[in-house]
Amino acid sequence: MANPILALDVGTSSCHVLLADNEGSCLSSASSPIAYHTPRDGPELAREFDPAQALSTLGSLVSQALSEAGVSPGSIDSIAITSQRQGLVLLDSAGVELACTPNIDLRAVFEGAAIDEQRGEQVYRTTGHTPSLILAPARLAWFQKHEPGIFQRIDAVLSVAGWLMYHLTGRKLGERCMEGEAGLLNISSGARCHRLLDSLGFPRGLLPSMPGRGAPHRTVFGPLAQEWGLKKGAEVILAGPDTQCGLLGMGLTQPGQVGALLGWSGAVQAITSDPCLHPDRATWAGRYLLDDLWVAEANLGEVGSSYAWLKDLLLGPDAPISEADDLAAAAPEDGSGILACLGPSPESAFTAGLRRGGLLFPTPFAYQQPTAAGLFRASLENVAFSAKANLACLDQLTGRTTDLLHIGGGMARSDVLASILADVLGIPVRRTRTPQATARGAVLRAILQTRPDITPHQLTEIAGADHDDIVPRSPAVVARYESAYREWLDVQQRLDWE
């Protein structure tokens, strides 16, 4: 058997490591939460991660995964890297981290609002993304205004995946799909959007080069490689953004296929043969990992994070998430009349700012008291209702009718949620059995780049064979959920800040 492939995935809530064979089958995996902090004297909405701590966590996970599979680190020939979108690492000329900002860093809210007020339409039509507060130009504008000392020392602006690539190879590189997610790419041409970036004051010299598809870059025998026991010369591949890698990990390679990654947040993406831009900027357009393909995306908002919050509130932080699922499974299918309006919403637009939400249940309590089981089930129904609304938006945009939804990610492991999704959508749901679909997608991207004998169609067969199909239980259940969905939509539309 050929030497295994190691995938590194720095997501929003956790770091993941996956070891796979050269056909993409999982040999072992390991995960650990990632910690964020507000920098000293930084604004309340600022978030950063400690680079040394993140590298140490990844190193421990690599060791764990290799040990579980009985594999020596020196036998690794290929390393695939993926990470959260919009996360950025600012390096100085010596390669020292000046700031490591995740995708949940919202310090640039005012800078982003100013950009969108003046150039919002141009930003969206060029990059396929808004609001600007989460994109690289606004982040850099914040540092220029509030931390000029740091700004003047910046030598490179890298994605989180690009930062890992730098530590393994010594090269400051970008990957086309990932650069697009940061608002640094013309989404249609795939080239840098220099005219837009120049107008926003983004220095061209801070942008990493974007090598085309071809030979991967090689590890250097630096401190990180030595610490992890990696050999010099192993191939390192920037696989792309975590969501797009997740689609590939589920075997999606053709226009018209639709997948949902349900983790800390949720995103529904449809593969398209052209960039699809919404007239009201209600969706995103991004590059896909395969040539001449794009994705149209609608966002569900906070999925796993809102469910975890409810679990911590009702059961305590030490209770496993499976306990919440067990309670949700025992509750009536309509949540005993409870409606949840938490993170996931019917709005596809990536709008900034606060909105109302909460849990609604029948009163007076003398008639019927809400239970923890009902609240958990309503929270999962909230996710499914949001998926239905956003899927309808994508179908209208792409001109297709989705008849099968692929799902993956941490929340997709919930049997209750998978069943509710099928009933609410009224279509089959295909769930990947691989617990780390994103990391597996990174492995498959590496296979594509290093093995010319493998085609995207073969990848579909490899990844697609590992799934469960969940179908709607009955037309009557689908009809009942359609009525509950309409009520949820009405409530959501009434919940707004006056």
Structure in words:
With 498 residues, this protein is an alpha+beta fold. The chain is 39% helix and 19% strand. It contains 16 helices and 18 strands. The chain has helices at residues 51-69, 109-127, 136-146, 148-153, 160-169, 176-181, 194-199, 223-228, 242-249, 304-315, 321-330, 372-398, 415-425, 437-450, 456-464, 475-494, and strands spanning 5-10, 14-20, 26-33, 78-83, 88-91, 97-101, 156-159, 217-218, 235-241, 258-262, 265-272, 284-287, 294-302, 339-341, 358-360, 405-408, 429-432, 467-470. The strands form four sheets. Strands 12-13-11-10-16-17-18 form a seven-stranded mixed β-sheet, with helices on both faces. A hairpin with a 5-residue loop joins strand 5 (88-91) and strand 6. Helix 9 (242-249) crosses helix 14 and helix 11 (321-330) packs across helix 12. The chain is globular.
The helix tally amounts to 16
- Gyration radius, rounded: 22 Å
Backbone structural class:
alpha+beta
Task: Measure the end-to-end span.
Answer: 63 Å
- Average residue pLDDT: 89
The biggest beta sheet reads: 7 strands, mixed
Q: Name the overall outline.
A: globular
Strand percent estimate: 15-25%
Assembly form of the protein: single chain
Task: Work out the number of β strands.
Answer: 18
Q: Helix amount, in percent?
A: 25-40%
Uncertain segments? none
Instruction: Describe the strand arrangement of the main beta sheet, using strand numbers.
Output: 12-13-11-10-16-17-18
